[in-house]
Amino acid sequence: KDPASSQEGPLPLSLCMNLDDIEMSACRIMSRRAVTFITSAADSLASLTQNRKDWSKLTFRPRVLRDVTRADMTCHVLGKKSRLPFFIAPMGMAKIANDEGELALVRGAVANDIPYCVSGYSSIRHADLIACQKEVGGGGILWYQLYVSKSGCETTRQMVRSARDLGYEALFITVDVPVVGKREEDERYKAELDYAAGHFSQSSSGEGAPVLRGMHSYTLSWSDLSYIREEWGPSSGPVVLKGIQSAEDAKMAADLGFDGIYLSNHGGRQLDYAPSSMKTLLEIRRFCPEILDKVQVFVDGGVRRGTDIVKALCLGATAVGVGRPFNYGIALNGVEGCNKVVQLLSDEIQTTMRLLGATELGQLGPEMVNSTILENRLPQ
Ligand code: FNR
């Protein structure tokens, strides 16, 4: 009998061959609450599904007969050197996946010398995360992700100040959550708990009217960003806008002097039918390609393969964010699970580079992907 498929429990990490194995295995052991929170996405899951599909639409144009003994994956990101061209995307409440929560992700980021963008909704105190980074040798790169609170500008200023004083190296402002998307699995779970407890609330999503879900500022506008930047200070490190989903907003961010734009539809958790980051990147290449020389570009959503990461780099991304797989990794085995996700992706990137005929990331360009798609944009 097949030893792996006959198991009911989690696969040992050594039998996980890719990120899908890690997800499948983690979902066997996580609580329903954790699975629901991590996997859930908005409405009909159209963006969630499309995120993965869009990566698969792009094909490669490899070059052969090149010496590919070397395959250097070093990447320069926001003024720092990262060993690999991907990073851990911000995800709140990592303790839901593993008791060590964000500490496991900090340890993994340091061990692998990659950036980790820590969520403003970390389940571990930020001071403890920075202390942990130092304890384990100080490598890695920690960025802070900010949600602008609806409690007002002073609360936001305080969060920014404290992130800056702790020594986070960059500020990522998430701009795609004026309200929280309608994540039906989350709502079903809460409603079932309420129902079982005999509470029949009108709004299963907590305080306020259901259409204004969440704790974020729904008045946040371009002009508010200046007080946030001012509080962070000009010499505290780069500032990036996370959640850009159109060429117009990308251009606006570049014109306003932001250091980076992070193309993302929040892993399909916010606006359903929002474009994948790859679609937005293609839109930028078509309508305002000049901004690719002005700002660094981050993308995420549905990235599950080294080939996805290489495709993004060919299209002009600086680095690629990976979200849920890191939660699944730590759910399976804390920092070891995080390391396994990094190792699988890095092996896949290296093999992809060699098969494409590239020995360093600077050699990846649009000529290495199928030009029909570049010209016509993605098939619908
Ligand atoms: C997120 N995401 C997110 N984004 C953010 O800016 N701040 C946050 O606190 C969170 N929290 C969060 C929790 C969980 C459980 C998930 C799955 C996602 C979005 C995240 O940064 C990223 O954009 C997506 O997760 C990328 O998609 P994949 O890789 O999960 O498909």
Automatic annotation (TrEMBL):
Metal-binding found in the keyword field: yes
MF terms (GO), sorted A to Z: heme binding; metal ion binding; oxidoreductase activity
Species of provenance: Knufia peltigerae
Included stretch of the parent chain: 109 to 488 of 501
Highest rank taxon of the organism: Eukaryota
Record's keyword annotation contains Metal-binding: yes
FMN hydroxy acid dehydrogenase domain mapped to chain residues: 11-374
Cofactor entry: FMN
Sorted UniProt keywords: Heme, Iron, Metal-binding, Oxidoreductase
UniProt-recorded name of the protein: (S)-2-hydroxy-acid oxidase
